[in-house]
Design goal:
The chain is an alpha+beta fold. Helix content is about 30%, strand content about 20%. It has 11 helices and 19 strands. The strands form 5 sheets. The protein has a 6-stranded antiparallel β-sheet with strand order 2-1-19-18-17-14, sandwiched between helices. Helix 1 packs across helix 2 and helix 7 crosses helix 8. The protein is globular, with a radius of gyration of 25 Å. It starts with 5 loop residues before the first helix and ends with a helix. The relative contact order is 0.18.
Length: about 450
């Protein structure tokens, strides 16, 4: 005859197996139980690190020492680089005056006539100068970063990197049935045509991989979209001349010791940080690291140089050194541990006044990528940065408990095959319990 305690013992054994499968976390047992019993989280790699945002005290660790693909949570590293290297304003461009000529080159500032973070500082400066204008192409990183998905080139979230961007390196389209297609900048209008018969795509616009030709698919409803264009010095000078309504010539990059280069200041840095973090703008993040590189050395725009300097000077004390290869997190080569991400959040909280820091991040129920989640009748209770790639969904940021305590949180999910929406919903369910019980 079976013992009456057998079902309870079997259930306890099953719970223990499930918990062990998640590499038993260090912290409250109720949180361990939530994670280990989750059917949504059971079949992929999960990491969770919780710290007190003020003191840095570890509160919970699950697989926090293991490396994960961080996706766009890497933008927090880019933010940290900018805070240490850029000062209060973006470097808009650099220039020298030689007799009747003004030679200028890029710093990576992405805001010149950008559709979402627009600046006319460089435009007004160049348009109003009495000298002849000469653009000098400074050495710069490749248009695409290491480990990026090559077939993302057609999508708004993957513009090419460059030293002197205009219009965010994208062509903007606005379509209304029965009306002429609106295109900006207009220089690309002659390169836009209806898609050839037989072309099938879920996109509104398709561009061939290696050329600036844009095919518009048939449509019956209004839409607005952006498509990156191919960058080159020739395209840039054509855009500059068309925009400034004056001649711009090109000179080879030959800096001279006798030249005293000046920097034109641009927008306040927070205008870029806020947009980059709240909507997870990859282009702004990549250009941010190029601007950091321009502060370190005048001879080239090199992402690796900026990353190396920040790691060596300010991030040596992280629990685990990140593998950091780009500014946006688009690369699958990036790797970071949950405990290093929360350590970075603690450093940010220590170095940036809390109201400013939280205002830069997406806010639950407020704005950005968290606008539909992480809030209740009292308002926002989570501010942070999401990170999403195919089969990857992460969240890093600050959680306000019901007692008013602020926690630094890194919740990573890699290699999941369930829908991202299910992972997101489960993360919110678990973090709500953290809000209520810690």
């Amino acid at each position: 005859m079976l013992s009456s305690s057998a079902p309870a013992q079997n259930k306890a054994a099953a719970d223990n197996v499930a918990e062990t499968a998640l590499h038993r976390g260090k912290g409250p047992r109720w949180l361990n139980s939530l994670l280990s019993s989750s059917s949504v989280l059971r079949q992929h790699q999960v990491g969770l690190s919780l710290r007190d945002a003020v003191s840095g005290e570890p509160l919970y660790e699950l697989n926090s020492e293991q490396y994960f693909t961080p996706a766009s949570t890497m933008k927090l590293f880019s933010l940290y680089a900018g805070l240490h290297l850029l000062g209060d304003s973006l470097p808009s461009l650099r220039y020298v005056v030689r007799h009747d000529s003004l030679l200028f080159w890029g710093t990576g500032d992405p805001t010149l006539l950008h559709g979402d973070v627009p600046s006319r500082r460089a435009f007004d400066f160049l348009q109003g100068r009495p000298e002849k204008l000469f653009y000098t192409p400074i050495p710069c990183v490749d248009a695409f970063g290491p480990g990026w998905s090559w077939d993302d080139y057609n999508y708004y979230f993957s513009p090419e990197r460059g030293p002197f961007p205009l219009y965010g390196h994208t062509v903007r389209f606005r379509a209304t049935p029965g009306q002429a297609l609106w295109i900006a900048p207009r220089i690309f209008a002659p390169l836009v045509e209806p898609a050839p018969a037989g072309m099938v795509s879920a996109d509104h616009v398709r561009r061939p991989l290696l050329e600036n030709r844009f095919y518009v698919l048939p449509f019956t409803r209004s839409w607005v979209d952006e498509t990156p264009f191919r960058t080159s010095t020739e395209v840039l000078t054509k855009l500059l001349q068309d925009t400034l309504r004056r001649e711009v010539r090109v000179l080879p990059w030959r800096p001279r010791v006798a030249d005293s280069a000046r920097t034109l200041s641009g927008l306040p840095v927070d205008s870029l940080y806020r947009r980059m973090l709240q909507v997870s703008d990859n282009f702004l993040a990549e250009q941010l690291l190029l601007m950091c590189a321009s502060r370190l050395s005048p001879d080239s725009l090199n992402t690796d140089r900026a990353i190396r300097a920040v790691r060596q000077q300010w991030l040596q004390d992280l629990p685990d050194a990140p593998r950091w290869v780009d500014g946006s997190g688009l690369s699958r080569l990036n790797l970071a541990t949950p405990r290093s991400l929360t350590a970075l959040l603690v450093k940010l909280h220590q170095e940036v006044p809390e109201p400013r820091l939280l205002s830069l991040l997406a806010a639950g129920g407020g704005h950005g990528t968290l606008r539909r989640v992480y809030h209740d009748a009292r308002g926002t209770w989570f501010w942070g940065k999401t990170g999403t790639l195919t089969n990857t969904h992460n969240l890093c940021g600050y959680l306000r408990t019901r007692t008013g305590r602020l926690l630094a949180v890194s919740f990573t999910n890699n290699n999941h095959v369930v829908e991202t929406s299910a992972v997101r919903k489960e993360m919110e369910r678990i973090l709500l319990q953290v809000r209520n019980r810690l």
